[in-house]
Amino acid sequence: MKTLRIAAFALLLAGFVASSFAASSSFKDKGETGRLVTGRVSDRQDAALASAVVYLSNTRTRAVKTFIVGPDGVYRFPALSLNVDYEIYAQYNGHKSDTKTVSQFDGRQQVNINLKIDTR
Fold it and tell me: Per the confidence metrics, is the pTM higher than 0.85?
């Protein structure tokens, strides 16, 4: 009986420690505003490419987010993790821009990357 009480206490204590750790780590995540990646998609003559699709790939999970740009060619990916590298590129009518990287070691909160597509 005494052994059972000690085992139950140990499990209870382990659960408390684990939940405290999880709560503290999620609190830190909520405190971060994250990184904002913005930019503009244009052709080689700097004309905006409306309806171009921008792809943002998390290099850790390989999850991909997309953004279809409006008439001004501007895109925006808010609230990105500061601890992950991202790759970003754009496509328009079968043509693709160069792929750019946003590094986790880049300390900027806001990163602006303009993407150029050769439409010829």
Answer: no
